Amino acid sequence: FVHKMGTAIGFLTVSSAVTMSAPFFLGRVIDTIYASASDAETMTASLTSLCIMLAGVFLCGGACNAARVYLMQSSGQQIVRNLRASVFSSILRQEVAFFDKNRTGELINRLSADTAVVGRSITDNLSDGLRAVAQAAAGVSMMFYVSPSLASFVLLIVPPMAGLAVIYGRYLRSISKRTQDALAQATQLAEERISNMRTVRAFGKELSEVDKYTQKTDHVLGLAKKEAVMRAGFFGVTGLSGNMMILSVLYKGGLLMASQHMTVGELSSFLMYTFWVGISIAGLSSFYSELMKGFGAGARLWELLDRKPEFPLNEGKILPADQLKGQLKFCDVSFAYPTRKEAPIFQNLNLLVPAGSIMAVVGASGSGKSSMVSLLLRLYDPDAGVITIDGHDIRDLNPYWLRSHIGTVSQEPVLFSCSIRENIAYGATDPDAVTTEDVYRAAKVANAYDFIQTFPKGFDTVVGEKGISFLCEMVSFNHICGFFPQNPKILLLDEATSALDAENEFLVQEALERLMEGRTVVIIAHRLSTIKNADAVAVLDQRRIAECGQPTELLGNRQGLFRKLMEKQAFLQEEQQRALI
Ligand SMILES: Nc1ncnc2c1ncn2[C@@H]1O[C@H](COP(=O)(O)OP(=O)(O)OP(=O)(O)O)[C@@H](O)[C@H]1O
C-alpha cells in the first residue's frame, strides 16, 4: 500500500509540475508570437518547435495524471474493503448484550454507508486534495516568480477566505455526523419493519409505517437542505472572490504593463496561474468538506473498531474432552439483562443438574427459561453467583470450547438463506470437509431424510419456511453430535410447540430421545410427555427455582406449583380440543 501511494505521489508530482509549468511556457508562446508578429517565417519556425516540445511535455503530464488517478483509486478501494472487513469482524466479536443495545439497522448502516463516506473521503478526495495542495503551492510560487508585486496584492484575499473555510468546515463536520445518525435511524426503522413484515401486514400498518419512515427520511432531508444552504453560501462566496481576484489582476496588471513593468506574456502567465490557484483552492475547499464529512462518519467507525468486547472470544481454560462429565450447577445466581437492569430475571437461583441426567425446566411465559439457556451458553454473565460445569466456573473456560461442547436446539432456529445441505454442514468445524454422505447420514439420524426428500429439490432446497428450518437445525445438531469429535456432552433444548405437523413432530421427538441418551440435558419443556420422561423437573417462579424434584413426586403435591401449572396446561389442552370439535 505504502509503495503504491509513494508511486502515486511521484506521478502526482510530475503531472502537477507539467500542469503548473504550462502557463509559464504558454506565456512564452504568446511573447514569441508578439515579438515576431511582423516576421511570419521566423514566427512559424519558432512557434512550431515550441509547440511540438510543449505537446510532448503535456502528453507526459497527462499520462502521469491518469496513472495517479488509477493508483489512488485502487488503493482507496483497498482501504474501503479492509475497513469493511475490520468493522464486520469487530461487530461479530462483540458480546450478545451489545446487540441488545445496538440495533441491526444502525450497525448495517455503519458497515455500508459510513465506510463508503470514509472511503470516499480518503480515496478520490485525498488524491484530488493532494493535487490541489501541490498545484496551489506551485501556482503561488510561480505567481511570485512572474510578478512579486502583483502576487502579494492578489494574495491579500487568502486570510479571510481561510477563516471562512475553517468555520464552514466545523459546521459541516457536525451536520454530517447528525445526517449519518438520522440516516442510521431511518435504516433501522426500515430494517425492523421489513424483517417483521408479517406483523405489519397482519395489523394493516403498511401506510402508517410508510409515514413513519417518511418522517425519518424527512429529517435526513432537512439536514441535507441545511448542508446545501451552507454549501451554496460557501461556494457562492468562493466563486465571487475568484472572479474579483481575476478582475483585480487584470486591472493592476494592465497598469504594470502600461508602465513597462510587465510583458503581455507575463500578464497572461500570471492570469493563468491565478486561474489555477483559484481552481485549486475551490478543489481544496471541496476536499476539506469531504474530509470533514469523513471525520464525522469515521468517528462512529473508530468507536466501533476500538470497542473491546466484554467477553473474551477464544481464551480461557480448555478441559480435556474425555474428562468432561457434564454436571451443571447454578449457585446463587442473580441476573438482569444489561438493557433492563431494573427488571431482575433471577435472584439467588440455585439448581443442580447431575451429569447424564435430563432436567425439564418449566415455568410461565417470561419466567426466564430461555434466559437460563443464554447464561449456560455464556451469552451473558450473571451479576452475582456462579455457574459451573463439573465444578469449573464457566467464566474461566474458553467460550469457544464451552459452546462446542454444548449442543443447542432452539425453538425458532434462524438459518441462513442457503440450501438445506449447506445449513446442515454449518455446525461442523470445517464445513468444506463435510461430504454428501455425512449430510445424508446426519439427516437419517434426525429422522429428517425422508422428509427432506419430499421437497422437489431435496437437499438443495433453499431454507425459509419455519418447519423446514426446524428440521434442518435438528439435522445440523445431529451432525455435530454424531460425526464430529466435539460430540457435545451437554444438550440444551428448547422444545418446539407448533412448528411441525403431527407426523414430523413424532419423528423429531423420537430422534431427540435417541440423542438425549448418555448426555446431560436441560430441556425447556412444553409437553407433558417430555416432562414425565425427565429425571427431574425444575419449576421457575419469582426469579428462582421454586420447586425441583422427580415429576411424579411433584405432581403428588396438590398445593405445589408444578401441579397447578400442569392442571392449567391440561385444562388449556382440553379447551383447545373442545374448540377443535
Ligand atoms: N435480550 C433481552 N434483553 C432484555 N430483556 C430480555 C431479553 N431477552 C428476554 N428478556 C426478558 O426477560 C424475561 C424472561 O425471558 P425468557 O425468554 O428467558 O422467558 P421464557 O420463560 O423463556 O419465556 P417464553 O416461555 O415466553 O419463551 C422476559 O420478560 C423477557 O422480556
From TrEMBL:
The gene is ABCB10. Residues 8-293 form the ABC transmembrane type-1 domain. Residues 328-567 form the ABC transporter domain. GO terms for cellular component: mitochondrial inner membrane. The chain crosses the membrane at residues 45-71, 153-171, 232-251, 271-291. This is ATP-binding cassette, sub-family B (MDR/TAP), member 10. Keywords: ATP-binding, Membrane, Mitochondrion, Mitochondrion inner membrane, Nucleotide-binding, Transit peptide, Transmembrane, Transmembrane helix. Pfam families: ABC_membrane, ABC_tran. The keyword rRNA processing does not apply. GO terms for molecular function: ABC-type oligopeptide transporter activity; ATP binding; ATP hydrolysis activity. Its main location: membrane. It comes from the Eukaryota. It is a multi-pass membrane protein. GO terms for biological process: oligopeptide export from mitochondrion. It is found in: Membrane.
